[in-house]
## 1
Amino acid sequence: MTGFFNRLKEGLTRTRQNLVDKVEALVTGRTKIDDELYDELEEALISADVGAETSIELVERLRRKVKEQKISDPSLLQGLLQEEIAAILGGEAIPVNLGNQPTVILIVGVNGVGKTTTIAKLAHRWKQEGRKVLLAAGDTFRAAAIDQLEIWGQRVGVEVIRHQEGADPSAVAFDAVQAAKSRESDVLIIDTAGRLHNKSHLMNELSKINRVLDRAMPGAPHETLLVLDATTGQNALSQARIFGEAVGLTGLVLTKLDGTAKGGVILAIHSELQTPVKFIGIGEKMDDLRDFDPGEFAKALFGKEE
Amino acid sequence: MAMFEGLAEKLQNTLKKLRGKGKVTEADVAEAMREVRMALLAADVNLKVVKDFVARVKERAIGQDVLESLTPGQQVVKVVHDELIQLMGGTTSKLNMSSKPPTVVMLVGLQGAGKTTTVAKLGLYLRKQGRRPLLVACDVYRPAAVKQLQVLGNQLDLPVFSMGTGVSPVDIARGATEYAVAQGRDVILLDTAGRLHINEELMDELKSIKSTVKPHEIMLVVDAMTGQDAVNVADSFHKQLGLDGVVLTKLDGDARGGAALSVKAVTGCPIKFAGMGEKPDALEPFHPDRLASRILGMGDVLSLIEKAQSTFDAKMAKEMEQKLRKSDFNFEDFLFQVQQMQKMGPLDQLVGMLPGMGKMKALKDVQFDEKEIKHVEAIILSMTPEERQNPQILKDSRKRRIAKGSGTSVQQVNNLIKTYEQTRKMFKQFADMRGKGPGKGPGGKGKGMFKLPFMK
């Protein structure tokens, strides 16, 4: 567990450096809590992509607490902020439900967020856990996307259901469910083409995949995960909202957290939408995909270990 | 995004009460600047860049004489708009071409920014300008990245140079230059692997490619949706490689593209191109004024006009205008409109470019169904010329025949007729509006909002 925690901490180093160290630098050496300090705190949050609205709200809550508890020592602000952040993130981790046979998981997102890589990491992880995993190459649009998934499939050692480039992704999905049933797979992960959420015809295509899946196996997909690039700014909210309306998300995967000093967008999403973050990608290695545990995350963010 | 909709409008409301005053005071401006700050932050412009920007605008806006014709709000909007354009720099979308070919262009950036797609688009763009580009697959890390470039090159009939994934990118780049000379290709486009700006090993690789083939142009590919970190990414790439230009991708999304401002501010490099879609020809020269309008929520009028110009037949458009004025607008014209709209590309993209469309509540939830347009076309094509010109004669039996002929239902035909009537009225309103000045667009308050059948 300690090793796991350290790895998580390492992946979040840049986020921590940006946000937490900045906050620490802000409060140390100060003798009183004033408007200037609040403004600077707000800016530190905004710089971490927390978003203007959420940042203002967070600082507002801090102000209230400081008043209520009659706090005058600036160094106590850090702890208070950690509490508030943990509160926004919510307490409980919500794991992916793998109770169905097969459990069908649909992966969606805009272009270039890391859907295919995430699928490879998920497949690797569940295979390690002894599950039988099957992948479906549902990105029939982008050049060589099918090959990309196939190469990952070989590396991980799982099978990939594929059609030709340009084929109907719903057909791929349908066939994959049939294959998963007959091969008695435990998990079927379906890749989809990256699409910008404001293209309604592409969003309709996703709804169709959803309908076809439900026909192939009532209740499927059991999980629909939206993959978000942690480097993304406030548009991540728009993505989560619109994909949610189109296909009904059960969770989010936040990728590339190791490369960004930000990741604050998690807070914005948690405070404005109800969709939980289920996994975070914190590195390029196969096992660098982690369960998102809000408590652990808040702790790792502030670099504290019990 | 929603809160960002119409900063221009917000500013005008904030400053409305100033109407009649001779000058904009410091306090007025301070209030307006809060809105500007929030709006820019919501557009993902870097905080530091925002602060500098706001300070500059403030200085310029205070004490400005309020022109007679403008409200103070508009005046401030204009200052903000001007400053935004200035910050984004001039309109240079020219690549540094070497006098001694081949010119070497290297594309770099984070994972998933859109480098490979951009390389293909750029190849097509250059060929249209009479160049002979060579695409080079230097991404040996991402699975199937080489294959992706090969497929794209194949589709566009552009040559692709690759040496598989077992060779170092430096050697591939060197090999490509030799190959280009032998084959008489005059521009080499290097597709490099996506990498984190903090990954020293991979950044060193780019440096060795640079020192080996000496690119004439190093362009950073930036996702328009990038957040506050855009500054660090751009700064780091710039410091390590010395950038010459920037390509902003995925601008066809609904992100405001504030990253563009950050990148320009921190590197000083011009943004040369904008990626506007998944199709290979969806690469456009970057227009700072248009992005400024977009950031302000003023609508991308110029892009729309340009798009319309390139697809609309100018003479036909003139005739159409005449008809609209006289409002003898029949189904023939309606069909023409629908067909023109199809030529202009995805409808939602067009609507996004219309100023004020964001303001229309009714339009926010509207989705466009391209398939429905086909139905509309089929229905009109099933009408006789007489019926198209005199829609009044459409009675039940005619409608039944048309429905049969077009494979639709009488209900759909009725819907179309209703839409046509509404459109005609709307166009009449537009025509009447001319000369009366702006401000009362049809459906401005969502009331009486027209609804085409392909809007759901």
Note: Chain B touches chain A through 53 residues (CB under 8 Å).
## 2
Amino acid sequence: MVEMFKYALNLVLRRKLRTVLTSLGIMIAVMLMSFILFGMTDLKSALLSELTTRFKPQELYVSGQDSMSFGGMVNAPTKEGNKKEPKILTDDLKKQIEDIDGVISVEPLLIINGLELYLEGDDVPYPSKIVASSDLPGSNHMYKDFYGEKEILDDYDIFVSKFVVSFFETTNKDIMGKKILAKSTSSGMFFSSSSKSMIDKQYEFTIVGVVDTANDAFWINNNTALDILVDLGGYDSKQDYISTIGYSQLYVNTKEGMTKKVENYIDNDLDLFVISSDTILGFVDTLTAGLTLSLILFGSISALVASIGIINTMIMSIYEQTKEIGIIKAIGASNTQVLIIFLIQSALIGLFGGILGLSITFLIMKILDPFIVDALAKQGFLDISQFFHFQLGNALIIALSSILVGILAGIYPSMKAAKLDPVKALRYE
Amino acid sequence: MAYIEVKNLKRVYEMGKGLQVGALQGVNFNIKEGDFISVVGTSGSGKSTLLNILGGLDWGYTGKILIEGKDIKKYDPNYYRRYIVGTVFQQFYLIPSLSVEENILLPIKFQKRKDRDIEERLEYLIDMVGLNDRRKHLPKELSGGQAQRVAIARAMIDSPRIILADEPTGNLDSKTGMAILKLLEELNRVEKVTILLVTHDKEIAKFTKERITLVDGRNV
């Protein structure tokens, strides 16, 4: 068998260029499969770990409209969603939710968009123009991590995210007590430049804590947020704003075992948009399953195309090696031995593609990993230090699969070669 | 008892549409062990068909071929081609990517049992065919005569009892051809191997002790 392997290897090495070109299909399939095995599993666990830290199973997020933000992820609009009329999250609705059996607390959240945010003494604004508000303490798990001595935001106090600290190239300790200046701009989503007075507004906040939130980088309390929203929008009072625009979201904490019931009530009876941790986990599942499925699909198509390539190459080889097959049969090679020699050749092409694919994947992983880790960190996944995990066991499975694809593709050509009549083969020109 | 007995050997080829061509139409001959015999005939006389059958490449014949009294159909075809006969072709049929040594050892690759004396046998044959200084060369670096010597050594590596040589000098000039014939004669004398030399050239046939002449698929 060793001798036949050497002979088959010799045959493959005789056609180096063709071997490389044929194995490219396998290489692409292997690369796609490798990305699933070495990256997707960790992506899913990273997403789940991040989201389950921020969202507990008893919590619900309620919105009057069909779009809610989860650290940058926004639900796509659905036809189902469109059936619901957008509603204003008024104090009345908040009260109705508080009265539902099983609800522990309802915390309103507000969003102010369109403010340019500067750190005191720095003339470069922070890239995001969004300020969020909540009355939750800094120790709440929504913030994931908290640095600071004052957990409750007083009026015109502000929590900033780690990203803000890093953007202004300072430290948690140094940023504490500094001011954040918020200036209204004409480029904000909610405000136009039609009113000059609107552009000139400016607010000042004192940093009292650093939290671990990504996109929502600035947090003030609801009272201050309402002050600003009333001021910017020209409303008569906070009450006027709430009854006209409403809260952005309501953060509902429920009793254990009652969450589903509360969710159904808010969804069906109050006709509001509600998202639970189940929805979020389902979203992650769908997202990762979708990505995995597409990679598997493309991988399988590549493997299929690669198989056809191998079949084609092997059939070409038979024509080229017809005389040689005749010779080795004439000097004593059996049909089975010819079959094995051809199967070894196609297995070698598969293995070569596998090794090539794994090597390139390994290289790409090494190059891309820091960028992916960085990109994930920007999305708030700060605990991921390495995205791709090259595992020898999985690499071995991939290499063996490549050999298997090679062997399967080689069966028909090998049988064809084995059945060649030695007399005709020797006469073949 | 004759070493090789060929009795009423016939080979008919189906050409389709009911057309049949009788390449061999009842060939009979006996060969003694250690003979050096030529099979002579013009093109289409059935020489190559006879050689393919004796070489174990074509089993679609009727009649009987006995070697030491045993019907060759009772042998495993691969065993027969490895150990009973060795074939030398007009076109040498060397593997271009293998060296002289590797070409000679090629039949060994298809054997299950490994002969411990194979290295010794290789040295002996390389020495006999006079290619000691060419052992690492590729076929393209050899002359026609040298390539045929490699083919002869390859046919002899498993020490078969019969060598079938199909126009072994056909692609060589007369001087080189003569050297090849002398090499075959030496093998016949030293190794006591029975040799059947197929040729269309009556001058070459004179080199052998006996001749079998084929005309239209029959020996005369």
Note: The first strand of chain B starts at residue 4 and ends at 16.
## 3
Amino acid sequence: MNKIIKYILVILAIPAVVYFSLDIRKLDEYKAENTDIKFDATEFAAQFWDTQLADCIIKAPDANVVIPQLEFNPETVFEKYGHKLGISKTYYLIFRGSGLIEAVEEEFLLVRTDDGTKIQVATDFIFGNAIRDGSGKIDINQFINMTDFNNVSVALNKLAKDKVVSRLKKAARAGMRIEFTGATELNEDNTDISNIRIIPIAAKLIDG
Amino acid sequence: MKRTNPLYLLLILILISGLAGCAGKNKNEATNKIAVVISTLNNPWFVVLAESAAGRAEELGYEAQIFDSQNDPAKEAEHFENIVAMGYRAILFNPTDADGSVLNVKRAKAAGIPTFCMDREINSRDAATTQLLSDNFTGCVKLGQYFVKQLNKTGNYVEILGLVGDNNTWNRSNGFHSVVDEFPGLKMLAQQTADFDRNKAMDVMETIMQANPSIDAVFCGNDAMAMGAYQAVLAAGKSDKIKVFGFDGADDVVRGVAEGKIAATVMQFPVLMARTSADLADEYLKGKRDFKTKTPVEVVLITPENVKKYLPQN
């Protein structure tokens, strides 16, 4: 009888020891977590620029609509056109406009839009998250860490410099007309419309 | 009397502990405790994070316990083992290592305990319930632009990094370099870690200044190191020549910005992050399940131009 009890205990004890000693998981799960595939922000940004951002450019609201609302009812602009990342007072949005280049400054083109507002179209210091977050189409949850997510901003800013800004720097002159689409960042606590600065993501120069 | 075989007793003990382990998995619901696991309490910034998290958890009706990992992943793992064994209901977590801490969080998850990361992230999309992170990269992009303008796009500088295993170190450094490296007139003479520690930063800066007499600025990955670097610069009689930049928005550095000692810093909001983490844990324990995997918390560039708004009340 003792022998039988001993055998039963051994049979029960061994799996108990194994269960509490090992971490058993599905192979698919493990493979998914341990992929060696490195995220390529440049490729991601290039594809995004040609597809989803191109769509944003087509659908961008006009400065003639956005800016007057921003002056008198900024909450409406933020709600309708703006995108916010996490816990923040900064909103990012994309809008388009057209106007006259009044001056070519060291870091921007000073443009007076058709409704009289002055906007800075950046030609230097092309940094930040306005393009990435202004589109509202890039979800932070897609990324395993903030490094990958932030590298997308870097890559998009580089594309803006290569595809749009470099051309503006070479060819823009005071007196020319410009049609532009750009991304901007605005703060809830400061919606001063005399100070709007955009990073251009599309631009067309027309001789005045 | 017949002596009992020791092997027999051992087998019985193994069985009993196995059964106890099964029972333990279900005991979390019986407690009302939340664990606050912090990378180190040797840094005042993290003390604020810990105490704010614990304080808010207690306001919400939980019993909160703070665990200090002392910047040691092994200590952190030990804390997690104890937390699982003692049946805490949730963990508010400030990791020691973005990769190394993932397993700890997964073990807690397997035991039915949700983890809410604060300030520092872990490299996993699904281990933690959610991660509240300061937007360090963006903060340093803003700081980098200010840095470039303060140096008029030319000059020599030094960078003092934080802990190399902390993603925040690299998010800040990468944000800074994503701007500054675009300006060829700015040259980095040295880049060294001081582990986010004030005294180490002072030593590092002293050594770097001895080897490099012509430095115009130093960027430090946190304010504790910025104060250490400033001490070294002051002792060398170069406080008028070398601009010091930090990150955190610590009271002494914000005052330093107002007094012209520190050029700029980036303010984080540890109290907001900590209290929000506790709120989210409470929501989870009351049944909410749809959380974003990451929630960045905005940071603010503090310069002499806006410092008055952010001066500490005391």
Note: The two ends of chain A are 106 Å apart (CA to CA).
## 4
Amino acid sequence: MAGIYLHIPFCKQACHYCNFHFSTSLHYKPELVAALQEEARLAAEQFPFPPGEAVHTIYFGGGTPSLLTLAELTQLLTAVRGHFNVDPDAEITLEVNPDDISEERLKEWRDAGINRLSIGVQSFFEEELRWMNRAHTAKQALEQVKKAREYFNNITIDLIYGGPGLSDEQWHQDLEQAKALNIPHLSCYALTVEPQTPLNKMIRAGKVPDVDPDKQSRHFLYLMQWAKENGYEHYEISNFARPGYRSRHNSAYWQGKSYIGLGPSAHSFDGKSRWWNIANNQAYIRSLQEGLIPFEKEELTGVQQLNERIMIALRTADGLDLSHIPSLEKTQLLKAAQRHIDAGHLVAQENKLRLTDEGRLLADGIAADLFFEEIK
Amino acid sequence: MKNIRNFCIIAHIDHGKSTLADRLLQSTNTISDREMMDQVLDDMDLEREKGITIKSHAIQINYRHTDGQEFILNLIDTPGHVDFSYEVSRALAACEGALLLVDATQGIQAQTISNLYLAIENDLEIIPVINKIDMDGAMIEEVQDQIIELIGCKPEDILLASGRTGLGIEGVLAAIVDRIPAPKGDPEAPLQALIFDSVFNSFRGIIVYYRIQNGTIRKGDKVRFVSTGQDYEADEVGILKLKMTEKKEVKAGDVGYIITGIKNAKEVKVGDTITLSNRPTKEPIKGFEEVKPMVFAGIYPVNTDEFEELRDCMDKLQLNDASLTYELETSQALGFGFRCGFLGMLHMEIIQERLEREFNQTVITTVPNVSFIAYTTKGEKVMVNNPSEFPDPVKTERIEEPYIRAQIITKPEYIGNIMTLCLGKRGILINQSYLTTTRVELIFEMPLTEIVFDFYDKLKSQTRGYASFDYHAIGYRDALISKMDILLNGEKVDALSALIHRSRAEDFGRKLCEKLKELLPRQQFQIAIQAAIGAKVVARENISAMRKDVTAKCYGGDISRKRKLLEKQKEGKKRMRQIGNVEVPQEAFLAVLKLDD
């Protein structure tokens, strides 16, 4: 088994663009932590992974996992280690917000066994952070990341580009700042307007300008070029790493490996089926108090498995490996790909299909074109 | 025979014909309250919804007059739209009288007048009835004046009624008996029966409705349809109560049905004469015409693999609508489909909707066109019902297009708007007259092709709905017609080609290109949309390439959702048609019908 994800669905305040599952009420945090431990126990018993298979990564995501106390974090890690065969060298990532970072907490996290920090910086500009409704300031972003760097070598930061207020120059400066801080891994996301978010409402009410796809593609193209010039490998659409610093946990998703997700709304996958927990903290807690993991499940057909492979692999620098695809499907795939190869958006070499930089801007449509259809 | 009355109701859409008919049936107990459904005569869903009768029907009413005598009243229902004026004329020919029904709140409308003229031509006794007199806004006196001016009757000849409340219904029934003459005819003479309608029944085949002028039709008779010369055996004859009622014979003067096991609607032609094979009439009933389609368009299945299914549906549809014609057609853009001929634009809409509702088909209808005549330099005369048949201009001497005489009745304040509209549509004003101080009749001669594209909607909006329109064909005239093609990145889209007057081409081309720009999704490359006549580009629009189409996040919880999204996107693309390298959604093929100013 590749990895275990723990979803910590609490935030101090809601970011305007976020559509993940979270609550800004911390009232049920202790119960939720207990439920997560119970789920880890049940999951280890119930899910059909080969017994004893090693867990190579653990990832605390959210929400805001830096809201966990040291005791809570320790309990959770102990539970996971107790129920699963966790590799001693496992990558253990904690998502943290800059405003939660302090020397004391950094020490705690390090001592608890966390060896990779993912810091939700989003921007180094105050006005950007304000409209996003982030809890931290630009000053905190800079200083706390600097501080974190003293305790952790393996750090990634999140940055958001293409937003209505972010100029080209500011975006370039955000990237330069990350480099100056010697951050070895960057997750750079194009601002996406998700339905049911305050951002979406603000745009529809005309309070914020809508995102400009031309600006977004400009920022993305600059980012790709900048990454090349500054020694960051563009190994997934939104992820950039210095050599040796790819996210092992996320890479496993993209390689189609199996994973277990613990916590409300978390997804699990065993290669053929995917299941996801209820996205409601109280219902999740209640169910686990009665010894039941509250999930829904879908079995993937062969075609769906193949389509997911195409969709995800094309997003990665490694590309879609054709050597495991049956010859009939491979022929069909290459035929569908030809148009995009001709357009300079795809490259077929070494028995692999990879997107070019231009192609990465159009990854979704290209993947959809390469999809197979169910035979009815 | 002296106790039979055959009549119809002439009325404009929404003037309350169906409601009045319901009251006549109810008050004579032809139909019990239990059986009563609103608007019994309109039994197709679509008719009910559109509030118009598409296919005519007939029903027999048994009526006891105030003097105690029993009468048979045959009500022959008539279709209420301009596209069906021939069918209306044949239904009228089967009657001796007509109720002229006018809405007290609306006054006389164009269609009422043209049908009234048809009735007068057929020597029908006209009984004017003002309906909806109970409504607020009823203008009884004004409408009375309109009617008197129009038919020259006395004020006391005009009946007042309300179909909704039943007010005045007895008076209407009495007037039908007292004022409409009994039919004349000789039951012993050779059979002459006028076919005024037919319906398809999946168990019995085609059921033919007729009115007997002379002679008698009996079960088991060998009958002949004069226009086709085909002989059949009368398996069953009878009269039309709420349901068909079998009889041994139906005699001169009466209205009835015949079942002969005919399966193909084309064999039964409205206006044709039924006679006996062994004792045929020397004279068929006058007025028979072969119905010719006026408007043509391609109908294609949305999914190319559903062609066979569509073919079955077209076959079935034609069984109960013989005025629909179709033949196989192929389009590079749309695959296999049918070139269909319709009586007019409403008929086309009805067919489309029936395919969708009754037969559950989703279809693409291409740019409609009228039927042109091309005279080649070799002296040949070619009918052009399809842009693809349009001859090479070099080898064409001239083109003729069909003209119509259009009658519009409106309020004086809209004359200006209507003049602008019709003159802009190449109309020629022939006559303008005040029917009353508040009703003006305008007569235009216009090319039929001009009413194919958004004429009805414009007429409606330019007059706030206060205009009624009727037309009939008046033959062909010379015209400068060109074939305009639409090109996407240089590839011709055959399904979007149109035959259009030269003075229109530029404007039409520009609007079509603009509309297509709205309807075509951005693709990964630039798309050039061009409208061209021959090699000459008359309009052009560009759609710039899509700049960005990639989801930012794709982690454990995003994968399923994203896969489903892309699968859906792919499914949507499958429904698009590939023209060269451009994917074209179905709406684009309908763009031409939705052009506005």
Note: Chain B touches chain A through 25 residues (CB under 8 Å).
